[in-house]
## 1
Amino acid sequence: MSDLRRFVNDPEKVVEDELNGYLLVHGDQVRRSERNARVLVNRQRNPHRKVALISGGGSGHEPAFLGYLGKGYLDAVAVGEVFASPPADAFLDAALEANIDGEVIALIGNYAGDVMNMKMAAAKAGRQNVRIHILTSKDDIASAPKEEIDRRYGMAAGFFTWRFAGYLADQGLDAEEIVARVENLSNSIRSIVVGLSSLEIPSAGKENFVVPEGKMEFGIGHHGEAAIDTPELMSANMIGKKMTEALLNDYALERSTSFVAMISGLGATPPMEQYIMADAVNQAFKTLNHSLSKVYVGNFITSLNMNGISLTLVPAESQLVSSLETPYQPNEFKTF
């Protein structure tokens, strides 16, 4: 066992234990698939949907991915081991459980294992007359230069794309229309992450990396992928400005623009500091002649027990705002 104190039983079976507890709490909204114990299915699907929505990925990012099942959101998710892609058969079973008239849209992060396994699942599903349309998020600006955007990772964008896709699906739109609109939105989303301390994968029993004393990891990945810079630790206002500037520079905007922002803790970041960072980002926007129309703060996309913050921006276009104003909530955010 690790020297770091954690609430686990067998470090090799944390996902099984997590799913048991999750279903205990949210079993009125979510069920476990009879096809696959690592697939969870939404009980509250809108009957007007013509297209099913699925996602999935490695555990350790909760509430992603299982927490975004629910009314107006995802229909099924595949659950992988900690920071590991679900196998192709889990993605396939998620698609088959969610299937509506042979049309399924998979919204996943642009990580090699997830993409490879989802493509394998799509090939198998096709032989069962189920078509899986694959959309990948590529919002992490630190993971590759803008000129190589197809190499960029992405995860935090799901906060917006899962909701927007659900909004469109609930209107009864067909798969091609949803794919086109969600892809357009996804391409406009940008994220960056700052880490102040490491994370620990339970089965590894040690910290995944080391943040030097008095430093911070600017542009680190959600799995601890190497940062693009390790500068001196700054004040919250300075960190917020540096993150905001990096994202706005990637957009290369020519006029003042209104954005929706999502600020997520990474697992060990106190809510107090998340709100401090929200104010810091807002102050940065004011000095840079852009504006925020809406800000979300909370633990939306995490990285086990890392102390850090992710900032995700998307231009506040009308359809996205309309989707965010609907009253639906994924099951994770219903706590009583």
## 2
Amino acid sequence: MPGDSTTSSTPGTRVAVRFLLPEPDPRTGARLTDVTGTLVENGPDRVVVDSARGRVVVPRERVVASRVIPPRPVRRGAPHRSLSLEDLERVMNGAWPPVEREMLGQWVLRAGHGFTARANSALAIGFPDAPLGQALLEVARWYEQRSLGPLLTVPVPEVGALPEDPVVQAALAAGWRTGEPVLVQSAAAREVLQVPAPDVRVEVGARMSDEWYAALAAYRAAPRAAAQAVLHGSPDQRFALVRDAEGAVVAIGRLGVSDGWGGLGAMWVAPGHRRRGLGRALVRTMATEAAGLGCVSLHLQVEVANSAARTLYAEVGFTTHHAYAYLAPGVVPGPVSRAC
């Protein structure tokens, strides 16, 4: 129904739901009420929310409006540092969304027609509804049914915690192998906006243009239909590009907006145009777009081995929030394991 944004939300998301009461409130005469809390069930017939006053079951036909709201802070400090790694991973899931998702307990099985590892891996946060060994078999079966290679995303507080993580240990024991670790970094949008950027013209659009897509496909595998589905799947998104003097696209980036956060991804600068400030200009422009869309905080993912990108992001105000690694059965994930 119009205004009901829970239809595409996954369990674990914080939501606010307005719904019609069966009878007017005897004290106030109100016909509508609200519930805010964690989405537990999101089915065709009902919405179930765990609120501060207990579990609330709302028949789907009584939902008048709903919206996704940012998760509660669990750490002290700036908003971009205050979320748990589990909650930030859920936020990131909306900024770079899969086309298909299914829950395995609290794990999120994600598929996006093979476009990027992030949209085609099982997000192992919380607990599956089976012992770890059985859960890994379920993950493998789910992806094989979709003609995709099984892939697992395991978030940890820091890179050094990967060997001690029980999911990683179970996967290694079952013959899975780890790929290169990835850092999840965050920043306050207002701080990024204060960093000087070169005077570069950055074009921004709400849709992926043919030129933007051509630049993407030039540096990574990106089937058009799959890329279109994933990159236009966020609640809102922006596509940024920079041209050279001849009009050729030489740098691109994407902003995905979800849960009040802006996610930066698909960052690329043509080799012959690097070290000229184009990446900094893209980041600054996307931070401006994010702030204009109401985002207070930003996130991105960067491979540990990508020292040039890590230097850029540190210079504009990003710090590491947590880390993750991809795991696959029997082989180490290669370049396809880029975060986004």
